[in-house]
Amino acid sequence: MKPVNEFPSADGLWTGIRLAADANVEGAIVVEQGAIRWVGARSALPAEFAKLKPHDGGGALVTPGLVDCHTHLVYGGQRANEFAMRLAGATYEEVAKAGGGIVSSVRATREADEDTLFAQSAPRLEQLLADGVCAIEIKSGYGLSLEHERKQLRVARRLGEAYGVTVRTTFLGAHALPPEYAGRSGDYIDLVCNQMLPALAAEGLVDAVDVFCERIAFSLAETEQVFKAAKALGLPVKLHAEQLSDMGGAALAARYGALSCDHIEHLSAEGIEAMRQSGTVAVLLPGAYYTLRDTHLPPIDALRAAGVPMAVSTDHNPGTSPALSLLLMVNMACTLFRLTVPEALDGVTVHAARALGLQDTHGAITPGMPANFVLWNVREAAELAYWFGQQPVRAVVRQGRIAIGAKE
Ligand code: DI6
Ligand code: FE
């Protein structure tokens, strides 16, 4: 990997491209000082830009840079053994109750020092970036103590700097009960709210706060306690909601103005209405649905009818979604969840950006925004959902630099 500052600048005039919105005409993008200056049909390009440094896209289709808005990318070890257990018939909840699951990743994460954790996580980030990801959320939640949550979040920040990619950190201290707090859930949530969160927020390590609200994790009341603590610090919230059962988490999150509710396979009509009113994004995670061989579909038609924006993400994690391709999630969102291709592509760009509060800087090619866009070797946008296992990236402009596909 080249150091970020050796990525060439993307400044200049990009032609030989077709913008996904109107792929039949040649488009043009002007990048100036790392930001989008102008975008449109080449035939409408103002003369003042015609002499800028040329970049030829070779006929590529262009979309905004992708945004992966829900990942647990930083952790120690891996859990292929549980994959085998599930194949033999064990459910996710049974694996968790048998001492596997999240807690086994907690053990491995605690054992790894910061540099080791960075070294283990970096190749995973590189895989996601190779698919055109320009912004990514990374959650904590495998440390479950101040020291180890801090370590995870610091690694997340370092990854962002090392790769020149926007990283939003989410504190997920309320992911699972650490073994040393067995039977003392209330005490652990007190620790999360009164010590871990304030300390990590003061260190600038927390962009948002999340909770795993579920039968096998934390209750609705505990979730609200964490939300109150986040609110007191002025931090936005999001929620792992109604993945395995309807806990009423989405409606609670909506009352706290949540950026997103994620998973939501068991989301109720009341939950949808609450999300609509609060403008909360529904984050769909087909990789977890697929890995768990879930059959309970999220209420896509009702979300669509209510106009709730739907994002799509990898949920990359070692237990339920060891997915390292956001494009594969686009395919799965269409095939498993019956999203249309435009819905799925909006789901990994504009709506995903909004799920992170990044709608002013990511998920679109708009004058004034930092230049984040992807050149694809496909004829039409539907191919981005149609092929799976293909790697159609021709070039990636990330944060105003040519991160992938620069001419040597
Ligand atoms: N929901 C999930 O799908 C992941 N975390 C969560 O709250 C699973 C995390 C794991 O199994 O390690
Ligand atoms: Fe998750």
Query: Assembly type of the shown chains?
Result: single chain
Q: Provide the succession of SSEs.
A: EEEEEHHHHEHEHEHEHEHEHHEHHHEHEE
Query: Tally the helices: what do you get?
Result: 15
Q: What coarse outline follows from CA principal-axis ratios? A: globular
Q: N- to C-terminal separation?
A: 14 Å
Strand fraction equals 15-25%
Q: Which radius of gyration do the C-alpha atoms yield? A: 21 Å
Helix coverage percent: 25-40%
**Average predicted confidence as pLDDT:** 96
Low-confidence stretches: none
What's the total number of strands? Answer: 15
Strand order of the largest sheet: 5-6-7-8-9-10-11-12
Hetero groups: 3-[(4S)-2,5-dioxoimidazolidin-4-yl]propanoic acid, fe (iii) ion
User: In terms of structural class, how would the helical and strand content be classed?
Assistant: alpha/beta
Major sheet size, sense and barrel closure: 8 strands, parallel
What would you note in describing this structure?
This protein has 408 residues and is of the alpha/beta class. 36% of the residues lie in helices and 21% in strands. The protein has 15 helices and 15 strands. It has an 8-stranded parallel β-sheet with strand order 5-6-7-8-9-10-11-12. It has a 7-stranded mixed β-sheet with strand order 3-2-1-4-13-14-15, with no helix packed on it. A hairpin with a 2-residue loop joins strand 2 (27-32) and strand 3 (35-41). Helix 4 (114-130) crosses helix 5 and helix 12 (326-335) runs antiparallel to helix 13 (341-347). Residues 72, 101-102, 105, 175, 212, 240, 243, 288, 315, 317-320 line the site of 3-[(4S)-2,5-dioxoimidazolidin-4-yl]propanoic acid (DI6).
